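Self-study notes.
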Amino acid sequence: MDNKYVRGGKFDLDPRETEILRSVLKAHVLSGEPVGSRTVSKGLRMDLSPATIRSVMSDLEERGLLCQPHTSAGRIPTEGAYRLYVDRLMRAPRLQRSRAEVIEAALHSHQGEITDLLEEASRQLSRFSGNVGIVLAPELKRIVVEKLEFVRVAAGRVVAILIGRSGVVHNRLLELEGGWSQADLNQMGGYLSEQFSGMTLPEMHQEVQRRLREDRSSLDRLKRKSMQLGEKAVERGDAAGAIFVDGTSNLLDSPEFADIRKMKSLFKALDEKKRLVDLLGNVLDGDGVQVTIGRENNLVDLRDCALVASSYQSGDRAVGTVGIVGPTRMEYVQVIALVDHLARVLTRFLSGDEPEAVNT
């Protein structure tokens, strides 16, 4: 840190305060226990007396960066301290090359099927962070249509297959009046693919409705029925994406969740997919890796946790989210690097780009 003071909102720290706070943070991340002055002194890169360390720790407590859970115990960092660390104190996140290569290979083996790919991504996030890995699949409203196909399964019943440019496949069973052959359905799918490839589902739905209102008389029977079938196929294009969660049991050994009530509350939050979808959906329109700590989280049940998340893209569109949930004392440097790398790899796979160089 080259500057004389570390500035973080209301906290302006001098080099001595910065070094002691950094030492407390490092020790607390490793143990999860209150940190005393003796432990702090072992992690310092400057020579300070125990009395000086205790005095500075007391000052940091008064300023809201440390707290003392018990009178005789050491101190632990507050959420504000971790926020200051993430914003100002930590080094630039870089993922180890060996980890990046393992992740790349694991995801590459599942590249052909997006459900397997995203499930594997959640496993890799959990595996290398020791926390909970979460991946939000592309929402239907963000899927860019590449092709539509219709398959006759019974008289009056058709399966609509929507294929997105990112490889997302969505099936929907439709009721269809009249006796349409598979050859007719192939023509309908080809016509709709030609007309609407490159649009999102809501865009396609809007355009189909417009054409049915304005051009109905100019459409022949097959094209008119194609439009009607296309409208049915995409009418619920705002449905939320699936979500993949892995590694919940990793939190069982965290001292923060030794309280059974806290653990039950956390597990309940991680099991309620709709709430997680809403939480991760908020990340889609942001830039880069986003970190929310403790009470910054909208979900009350995650107030003892941190969420590190980033969107991934298909082409130039953000379509889904990858994230890690863990205690507020997580190793942010590695977690941020891991989330950023996963998001980049998924973006590359879904966009068909060449591999990037891996930083070490």
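Second protein, same conventions, sequence then structure:
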Amino acid sequence: MAIKVGMVSLGCPKNQMDAELMLAKLEQAGYEITAESGLADVVIVNTCGFITDAKQESIENILEFAQLKKEKQIKKIIVTGCLAQRYQQELADELPECDGVLGLGANGDIVAAVEQVMAGETVRRFPSRDSWPLEGSRMLTTPHFFAYLRIADGCDNRCTYCAIPGIRGGLRSRPMESVLEEAAALAAGGVKELVLVAQDTTVYGRDLYGESRLPELLRQLCMIDGIKWIRLLYCYPEHVTDDLLSVMATEDKVLPYMDLPIQHASGKVLRAMNRPGDRQSLTALINRMRRMVPGIVLRTTVMTGFPGETEEDFEELCTFIKEARFERLGCFAFSPEEGTVAYDLPDQVPEEEKYRRRDIVMEEQSRIADAYNESLIGRTLTVLVESFDKYAECWFGRSTGDAPDIDGKVFFIPESRVQPGDMVQVTVTDTMDWDLIGEMIV
């Protein structure tokens, strides 16, 4: 009987890409991959180690499986991902229940690691990140009609609050030929939507070609038959060029949607974050984007409670949010991370105040999002059908303005037979919190 391997992958889509590469290697080696991790022989916890909440979630998952191991429901536990890379031997020492702890550079050795732990060995492997695979055969963990496409990883921006460069290293772009080959294979397998991801998507290719090649990559991706939508996540504001916006405006497959994490609007706070720009430059950028790409949906992320953020800085952020009126916005409280410059900065903001400010931002964004959703009533949207909601007794999907997992849904009752992966026309009739309600047009 084949050994059963289960995997729980936490954190961002980039981590999910690592999981899919490892799962494909295990399947090719003859292991049975099971979605019921609690019934597996070996459980792989692919961790996130970005901020405190993510680290806590990773540790809680490990401890839950440690209990199942104690109860002999599972046999072995292997920890991979960013937490394992970041804390390495410390994690191995403090969680001896883990039979294997692998840094990112050991992802390609996952088959050997499973073999070793099943043979009773304890595996601790932390090779150079240079051997960390970014491409190869994948076992998709997304629905068959959309897939994440990693075009690069690592980051050269060195924001003072961010642990990612220390975990994943500097920018590593994939050769364009490799990205296009993978995209064509995904399309041949039925994928209609590609969601492009990297730590900083907008600088794709700079390390390989001496300049950003994202606009050229997008043009080439648009030539692949079967791909209907191409969505951009993780775009650094200062690297959004007119060439990129022109591609978005002229190529129908490139969606008028951009994830543009700005983090703040106060020039003083942004400088302390080692990020360029200020409220004026960000306003100019957003105006330029909306002028060049009419109807663009902008998603952003902001942070409250960064060290030294005064009440005046926070008020400037709130004023900017009210003026910019991002269609999508998420806010998180500053998390001091070991090994980052911001960890030891003076004038740390009290925890309670960080979260008070975060709640104020999200209350304001709720009003902005409600107004935006109400403005869509009466409009007909193209919706990519995802699934049937048995509780609401209707189908749901995503419009061009909705990224998977992070944005809202469009709920509708079909006028004819539909199935996941179909693209249908839905006229919006009402709103419900962050979601839309509509009627399908035949």
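Instructor comment on the second fold: The two ends are 49 Å apart (CA to CA).
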